[in-house]
Design goal:
Layout lengths: L5 E5 L3 H13 L3 E5 L2 H10 L4 E5 L7 H11 L4 E6 L4 H9 L4 E4 L4 H18 L1
Parallel strand pairs: 1-2, 1-3, 3-4, 4-5
Length: 127
């Protein structure tokens, strides 16, 4: 039996965070939500997450800075950045800091689920 995949969602918009939590939980993932970057980094320092989904714009810090912190603490984790404005510069910087993918808001639940399954499959094939 495989362990449940642990996902951390960092987003200050309750509607987005709640929607992701419901969709991911309903599809068998263990989900934790943080509403600020500092809270998210605190949770990462306490627990290992297989996947982190973070918003670019948070009230206390940038999602890009969170990606850098995650890469230092857990370099093997899968990281997804979500943003309403995915400019080529932001996408390039996010990938440079460890994002697997940048997902544009608004997104469909199936977009997130397909991205997760693809990412987790690639990781399983490498290990």
């Amino acid at each position: 039996m495989m362990d449940m995949v642990a996902i951390l969602v960092i987003d200050d918009e309750p509607l987005v965070a709640d929607a992701l939590m419901v969709v991911l939980t309903d599809n068998g993932y263990a989900v934790t939500v943080a509403m600020t970057g500092r809270d998210g980094i605190g949770k990462i320092s306490e627990q290992r997450f297989d996947v982190t989904i973070t918003d670019l714009r948070l009230p206390d810090m940038s999602g890009l800075d969170i990606l850098s912190s995650i890469r230092e603490m857990h370099p093997a984790g899968l990281n997804i950045l979500i943003t309403a404005n995915p400019t080529p510069e932001i996408v390039a910087e996010a990938v440079r800091r460890g994002a697997l993918e940048v997902l544009s808001k608004p997104f469909c639940p199936s977009d997130v689920l397909n991205l997760l399954e693809k990412s987790l499959t690639i990781r399983r094939q490498k290990s």
